[in-house]
Amino acid sequence: MNDIKSTYTVDEALISLGFGKFQYFVLAYSGMAKISEAMEMMLLSFVGPSVQSQWGLTAQQESLITSVVFVGMLVGGYSWGIVSDNYGRRVGFNFTAIVTGGAGLLSAFAPNYSTLIIFRFMVGVGLGGGPVLASWFLEFIPAPNRGTWMVIFSGFWTLGTIMEASLAWLVMPGFGWRYLLALSSLPSFALLLFYPITLESPRYLCMKGKTNEAIQVLESMAKVNSLSLPAGKLVISGSRKEEEEVELVTASESVQERNEIGGLSAITRLLSPNLVRSTVLLWTVFFGHAFLYYGLVLLTSELSHGIRVCEAGEKDVLSHHSNDGNLYRNVFITSFGELPGLILSAAIVDKVGRKMSMTCLLLIGCVFIMPLLTPQNEGFTTFFLFIARTCISASFTIMHIYAPEIYPTAVRATGVGFASSIARFGGILCPLVAVTLVHSCHQTLAIFIFQIVMFLSGLAVSFFPYETSGRKLSDHVYS
After folding, report:
1. Over 60: is that where the pLDDT of 48 sits?
2. How far is the C-alpha of 393 from the C-alpha of 387, rounded, in Å?
């Protein structure tokens, strides 16, 4: 008989297996989902102006094309998080791919404005499941350098934005917005091809008490990576004595408690005394990041045309706006602003820490959008938006690393899903500022609002209760 004290946890198993071939597959699969999500979001910069021109929409109707996607994400973020915490990560991200791809393709055939709004809402519902794949990927990664690998994972979003900007530049002038919608839905269908060979998260299986299934997954990972698991018996990490600063939240709970995640119970868990401060601050910062990121994306296509609209009148500019080659060029250029943001976040996320990195980036971004309080020429506008987008994309990347790290396994997907849902309110409101206010010749007010949100978001980050850099990811939350 083996010594009963010879045991290992999922964290220790992941460390022993390292980052090998199996994790590269998980990275590629999750990355494809990230590309799909980025493409569906980026196309909003191009579809809105083009549809407005073709169907004679008002500025408010154009804004709704973007806002309704975020309303769908609000619903999806809540729903898919609960599904994945109750029925598994694989079930959650499989259905999100089906909904996103199907609704995205149907959007290309929308016969009228109302139908387009319905299909884009359904795309949003599917996109709301993005945090599920982030949680799935995170739960396969060993603790050392976890932040660096999550930044690399986030790099697929940047790749998706550049791909969409390139695709729009190639497709929109000659073929129009319908072809762009159809082509942008293809990555979601690619996920379905490889779904049968994906595996469930071993951490999730342990949390659900399915230790034997977790061992099978770990053994498959060991085989692919050509390594061996630690000797002994797999145990839930909470069954050991942990560091003094760690407070047990989930591992010692009953199976019945674990299966109660959902609805009011989920909110109660997230707002429990151990999590309430982190949860409320996370909701605040997610709202701010979504408002800022998607608002800056929309400003790239709207701000340079705002002066023309105010000087010449909207009807005289609409056709030029939807076919202006500078629009695609400027969005393409500012999309590359995410590359230095990605490199910067990778360099500082583990060395400087999550909290300090986000605070500094948000305050720097606040400074660089200040010149846009007054109208600038197109070159300066693109430059300042490039720098601002570098800062907000880097901060958003680190935010997506920090968020799953502060929650225990039992509520990780639900917690991040709720935060992502709150972020959608930022996405719903940002078109009213980036499109409606700019079209109404209130550029100074619009930029001032972006500055206030950026400053308050940076301030909120500084109030997070603890830094997660270098800490183990387990079934615990730091008290």
Report:
1. yes
2. 10
